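Q: Hi! First time doing this. I have a protein sequence and I read that you can turn it into a structure. Is that right? Here it is:
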Amino acid sequence: VVICPGFGNDSIDYDTPLGQPSEVGLKSVLARRGFEPENIYTVPVKRSDWIRVAGGLLDVGFYTNNAKPTGRGYGWYIDRLKQSVDQAYEESGGEKVILMAHSAGGWLARAAMSSGEWSTDSDGTGVRTADRVQCLVTLGAIHRVPEDESKCVTRGCLKFTDTEYPGTFLEGEGIKYITVGGSAVVGDNRKDEELLLAEDSSESLLEADEIYSKRGEGSAARVAFTSYEAVSGKGGLIGDGVVPFAWTQLEGAKNVELPGVVHSINEAGTTLPSDRWYGSEMIIDRWLPIVLKESGLSSKSSRSDQSGSNSSPFAGFQEWASKLIAKPEENVASSR
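A: Yes, that's right. Below is the predicted 3D structure, encoded as structure tokens:
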């Protein structure tokens, strides 16, 4: 597994988020479900690295909304992502990678997968993306540009990715796509009105609301409105508090909706930890078994059981998932 951090995130956010014990981090959550810890990688990113996005100012395309993801703004991230995938592939003995891409890491992973040409070996042999990647699962990722493309904060990088590698672009080569999005907060720009939360109001959301109120921002719903408007052009949508749900879905993918789930390790705009984000202990089992089904790991598990051996680094995960796979999925809506 290679975890792809979201914009503004640090690799440590998926290990010891907000200074909490490592048991809380996504890496530990995965390890408790059978993934071998040494086979869980995170693209190495420091929070300060994101200032490099400003390097896009040196690209002519930045000013015409035609920047490319491999340019000065985001090229460094794509290089590190591909290096992490190659490292995981080699150190696992040639096992294809599951990309777990959070937030902006989702569309950046699509950009890294590109047209299917991954790299060229030292002997000149071409390596396909499908030789390295088994599936892409995105968590609260932005897959669409705003209705007014000129307002896209990526200045053309996302548009390029979605135009050149639309939808499940490499599905024909065997790569599976799963997109996961939360529907927890309805954006509402009314400062003093009642909170609009979809179904589940977590304690951390209510605490965040108190902070927003003290800062004059009103509520989680108002903060979500501002974020949704920046992402999509529409503020009054439902989403994970940062990204509207509709923008997290990719045409042709296995699209999963998680009611009550929020965007990241913290409540948006605060330092309050959240136990309702995509990678938390109480949420992950609502989408991880779907990854198993879509990626074909369940069938591998069955074959290995019949042969009496399984040397795959996914072996522990397969054993965990085989016990869960037959259970009905609750609080999940999925579609193609």
